[in-house]
Amino acid sequence: MAYTAQEFKKGQPRWCPGCGDHFFLASLHKAMAEIGVAPWNTAVISGIGCSSRLPHYMATYGMNTIHGRAAAIATGCKVTNPDLAVWQVSGDGDGLAIGGNHFIHANRRNINLNMILLNNRIYGLTKGQYSPTSPRGFVSKSSPYGTVEDPFRPAELCFGARGHFFARAVATDAAGTVDILKAAYNHKGAAVCEILQNCVIFNNGTHDAVYSKEERAKNAIYCKHGEPLLFGENNEYGLMQEGFGLKIVKIGENGVTEKDILVHDAHCEDNTLQLKLALMGNGDGFPVALGVIRDVDAPTYDDSVTAQIEEVKSMKKYHNFSELLETNDIWEVK
Fold first, then answer.
1. At residue 291, what are phi and psi to the nearest 5 degrees?
2. Is the pTM for the entire model greater than 0.70?
3. Are the beta carbons of 10 and 39 closer than 8 angstroms?
4. Tens of pLDDT along 104-122?
5. What is the pLDDT of residues 270-320, one digit of tens each?
6. In this structure, what is the dihedral angle of CA atoms 323, 327, 333, 334, given to the nearest 10 degrees?
């Protein structure tokens, strides 16, 4: 059955004008309509934070849980009802600080969840404290002289937890966001989508290098499985492997042709090159990688649990409570 984005909408979003959450919400509505799973077969689970208000604006099942526990609640939701499409939405604070332990274990267990990480590198709801993804030296209300901590890089955390799917998009890039959300749904297992967005009040401009279409043309590279890793306003640059690293080359210079450019392999089980792509763009002169960076098949936790239950049941003499009672001595009291 075909659905429209309107059928997934509910209420009036209460976010600051210009907040990246508005852009992402519109893309999520559109992606869900194109995926085609009914609203009543969909659940959206969030924690605490600005972005965690998102379930209130979805005409699906939804739950606004306690701080950092979105992945835990989403896990229970999926394991007990495997036919439900479950989307977990967290901010960088909710998902990687108090919820960091749940984040890594959801990836390690490979639970069939669509895990959305809305990353604005700040605590917005509590009015501007630095978050686990804020860069070293970042000045905020909780670090007035600059934070002395190094940030988490979500891709590195996902890969280190043996994650099998990682994608990235910019909130203002609707087409790119819809593409990775659909890919996340079609991936069976824990699928992490990092969404880069600005907090217009407390951290505006943090992703300006890729926030507009013009800047993305210069500073981003779209990773597409099976296609060469080209970028630039006219695809005049590309990536080549150099030893254990990557290097930027210009097509036509020093005899370099498109055939020399590295072809993206999102399905490679060895994540070495995928991780190098995911970590580019942090002031290193490389473009920011967008699109599906890793997408590898692996057994899922929920399928494995269901299969284990069925296997154990098949070996038992009883299959329900009544049969269980009858396996022991029975007395009839008159």
1. 95, -165
2. yes
3. no
4. 999 999 999 999 999 999 9
5. 999 999 999 999 889 999 999 999 999 999 999 999 999 889 888 888 878
6. 60
